[in-house]
Amino acid sequence: MQSHIERVDDAYISAILRQTCYLLANQSVYDTHFDLGVLPFILDYLKTRTRPLVPAIEVYLAYYRLITDPQQQENFYQFYHHLENYHGLLPENEQRDLYLAANNFCIRQLNKGQKEFEQTALDIYKRILNKNLFKEGMSYLTFSNIVALALKIGDLDWAERFIRTHSADLLDEDREGSMALNLARLAYSRKNYSAALTL
Question: What is the pTM of this model?
Answer without folding.
Answer: 0.85
